[in-house]
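Example record

Each entry pairs one chain with its bound ligand, 6-O-phosphono-alpha-D-glucopyranose.
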Amino acid sequence: MERAGYELVVVANRLPVDVTVDEEGGTSWKRSPGGLVTALQPVMQQADGAWVGWAGKPDLEHEPFDADGMHLVPVALSAEEIAQYYEGFSNDTLWPLCHDVISPPEFHRTWWEAYRRVNRRFAEAAAGQAAQGATVWVQDYQLQLVPAMLRSMRPDLRIGYFHHIPFPPLEIFSQLPWRRQVIEGLLGADLIGFQRPGDASNFIRVVRRLTDLTTRGSMVSVPTEHGHRGVRAAAFPISIDSSKFDALARTEAVKARAREIRHDLGDPKVLLLGVDRLDYTKGIRHRIKAFGELLEDKRLEVPEAALVQVASPSRENVEAYQQLREEVEILVGRINGEHGQIGSAAIYYMHHSYPPEEMAALYLAADVMLVTALRDGMNLVAKEFVAACTDDTGVLVLSEFAGAADELSGALLINPHDIEGMKDAIERAVRMDPREVRRRMRKLRRRVIEDDVTKWSQRFLSTLTAVPDQPSPPPAR
Ligand code: G6P
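Structure tokens for the complex follow.
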């Protein structure tokens, strides 16, 4: 019998909206944070599919609903599951493990148990939404066990998985006490996508070294009851809805707001901008330190130069994030105390998140964008900045440790650990000849407008469809 359901189901930890239920039972929602939602929202607005995910609040049992042109299927998490599966295993074990152990990962068996339990719930929810033979696209590190769980529940499905964050080298991944289970979970997919070729090769190496499975190039051969199944691991660098962002930045309202922002900041000669979730992977402290030293050295001066730092609140119950917030705020306070003047601060620090219109205006207003991540899967802020620079002005200073560095030639690449090098690059960006600024920005814009998120999803989904669904003989070792 044919099953009713969706031909395409996306499963992600978060829904694209965070839901709030008021006392009368009415619901309202606002957009969820992060790059995953930025990228997938436009894809799902065009597809006739379902998005399975958590609505951002504890114990929220809610029927599927439609919002912003998407069909959303909430998965409920208890407060304890949020603490153990989301804040714990996802964001205090896997996140630091995948980001060069910048903060030490914690390994707790109770967290792992919760991760397994919650992954099963997501797998069941996805299985309940998918039509016979449908495609299920599992997203990100919070759900690495879902592909294998789903395959055992629904062998008829075609299953893709995309890892939005870096995949660590073997030497780091091996620390994980449940490393085999995680690999087995991922190998339930037909196609495993990564941001950079280096992430895909880290994964293949992990499979070769930690399992007995055979690999050939980007293919892993997994035994099944009937023979073998091929799993492909490859890079699919993600992007944004570039033309939509470009169009937004061309609206009169956004242009007027950009002028207003500069005016309200006292019309500085040079406006520098940082936009991040407040996360220790983003190199916010390093960037602020470099800016502070440039002021100290009088290579930049207030009020001619100003830095706007938007740091949107993130994972506020995780200790490493609380500590980072303290450190950043102390640093900003110190630099403003030393270099600020009445009416003009050195750093305008905002611990808020803003809607896309305001972000587009900020990008358009800025002269120099600072993306100084210590490690980042892609960094879509860099691409948003480029898409918003419709007047071809603006210089992007970009960390070589962000996936975007592979694609965005035209940016000034930096190593954020090298404070002197970063200072030189910032100064170079500030003083760059306008012709060079334009030349670089045009190059960046061609790339970002061309390689948008629709292309990314089409590439991933067409590769997924092309993975042969018949069992194949094992490749020779
Ligand atoms: C990154 C991750 C996403 C995550 C986002 C926001 O972009 O790759 O999976 O959703 O950060 O983090 P949060 O913990 O708030 O979902």
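The longest strand covers residues 130-139.
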